[in-house]
Specification:
This protein is of the alpha+beta class. It contains 5 helices and 7 strands; from the N terminus they run H-H-H-H-E-E-E-E-H-E-E-E. Helices cover 40% and strands 25% of the residues. The protein is globular, with a radius of gyration of 18 Å.
Length: 154
């Protein structure tokens, strides 16, 4: 019994350390990381073309998915061209979709990217890690004729 106590205490300490606020914060992407991921994705599109880029963005184990951060891409008409967290979204037109507060966030993201080149839009969306609807801020950037984005859950 004495030998069993040490592993149990060690396991308990690991659980306590990994449940601290700092560890929880590390589980979520930061705004700076979302911007960096979008910039990396934009460069990838320009260097490799859309077809190769979209395949890379859609790979859930690839370099464009990190914890709750992933790349999504819209056409100018609001069609999902790529989605790192949910491939079933690809091909769907979300131009008129609204979040649970009635905000037409896709329309806002596309308008913002076209008007300013890039920026942030607040919305509520399903977190792929928790599966719950959570407040989110998405950073979007216009890349040629597409809108590339990623977001952080608050």
């Amino acid at each position: 019994m004495k030998n069993l106590a040490h592993p149990l205490v060690a396991a308990l300490l690991v659980c306590l350390v990994h449940s601290t606020p700092a560890a929880a914060a590390e589980a979520k992407g930061t705004p700076e990381q979302a911007v960096a991921l979008v910039k990396k994705a934009a460069a990838y599109v320009k260097a490799n073309g859309k077809e190769k880029a979209f395949a890379a963005f859609d790979d859930p184990k690839g370099e464009f998915v990190d914890r709750d951060l992933y790349i999504f891409v819209y056409s100018q008409a609001g069609q999902i061209l790529s989605h790192g967290a949910n491939k079933r979204m690809i091909g769907k037109n979300l131009m008129d979709i609204k979040d649970e507060d009635g905000k037409p966030f896709v329309k806002e993201q596309i308008a913002l990217a076209n008007a300013k080149g890039s920026g942030w839009v607040d919305l509520k969306w399903v977190n792929p890690v928790t599966k719950a609807i959570e407040p989110k801020a998405s950073y979007v950037e216009k890349v040629d004729d597409i809108i590339v984005g990623s977001g952080v859950y608050k």
